Amino acid sequence: MKKFTIIVLSLILLVGLLSSFVYFLQGDQTKPSDTLQLSEQLVQFNGKLRNDIGIDVIDEVEPQVSRATISGVGDLLIAISIITDARQADGTYNFKPMFEHVKPYISNADIAFANQETILGGEELGLSGYPLFNSPYEVGDAVIDAGFDVVSIANNHTLDKGEQGVLNAIDYYNSTELIYTGAYKSEEDRAAIRTIEQNGITFSFLAYSYGTNGMPIPSGKDYLINLIDVDVINKDIVAAKEVSDMVVLSLHFGNEYELMPNETQKMLVQEFSKAGADIIFGHHPHVLQPMEWIEREDGSRTFVAYSLGNFLSGQVGIEREIGGIVQLEVEKTAFRDEVSFQLKDPRFLPTFTYKQNWRQYKIYPLHEIDDERILKNADEHLQNTKQHVSQWMPELKFSFE
């Protein structure tokens, strides 16, 4: 392209020199109108080049590039032991210390997402553990303090405390700046697509669950939870694409405790990638599953994390205690009348949830653990985790530096 521009500029210079030479030979015979006519021809020539092949001989337009990072974590599964550990002498709760070691990595992103597995129904509904979860509002305070911006509340525990639990949680979220998606208080609430703009890039957030553990949805109130329905989700993706640049889709799906995605998960992400989902965060298996790219016909691609595992939970077993933070960069390039987007630089930071006799809960970056009392053979677990999640994405990095 530069070569062609140099040739064109050389031709224009040659025309200019020839016209000057003719003017010298003719002396006063060359009229000012002749020079003016030549200038007009050059302007028309430049305009024709611009219109025909997109090259402006006179002006060089530089592409305008902007970037935003988005991170995601898996399940915040607040068991009764975690609630008891957070209880203060005055009867209030403080979950913030549990996040203190990972807070710098969460707040590092422009936008951070989490799956709020347990409904923030408030203590007035009665605190409970599996299979019916209910969390104090202070869980949300800790989530905000850690740096999260948006949570999915569409999962199999959404209706554990019935309609009132959902409404209580939404009242809490509406009193804060924490955005919720996946369960709603009305049809109008559901129709309002959640968006966040960062650095000139707009992200939309959709969330759906495979079911509700058999808890019935009140008649005529399907808006209380988004269930996975291919046709509905495809329509929602199209609608979200109209108001955003990047569609972030949260799917509560798969088989619990299985390390690899099943065929249904694979089929669904292919379907929703085709519909326009750009980033898919999966959860429900409570263990990590691999990440991969899905190539689309237009040359773009979808990032998929089939399961981000547990981020904070009381579950036992190393595979259920290791989760992580995934981070992506979205790059926007504006050049003349065209705007394009690219997902770049995928990273994953493995984490470990520590507890001692069902107390002292803390989430640690796995690579920072060098105390055998926290986790034996931490480096071995780190290497195994890296190999597992990156087996379909060799370029995945494991540092946020």
UniProtKB/TrEMBL annotation:
Q: Which organism is it from?
A: Anaerobacillus arseniciselenatis
Lineage of this protein's species?
Bacteria, Bacillati, Bacillota, Bacilli, Bacillales
Q: Which family does it belong to?
A: Belongs to the CapA family.
User: What name does this protein carry?
Assistant: Capsule synthesis protein CapA domain-containing protein
Q: Which Gene3D superfamilies match?
A: 3.60.21.10
Pfam families, alphabetically?
PGA_cap
SMART domains from the xrefs? Answer: PGA_cap
Q: Where is the Capsule synthesis protein CapA domain?
A: 69-315
> InterPro entries in the record, alphabetically?
Capsule_synth_CapA, CW_Biosynth-Accessory, Metallo-depent_PP-like
Q: Which domain of life is it from?
A: Bacteria
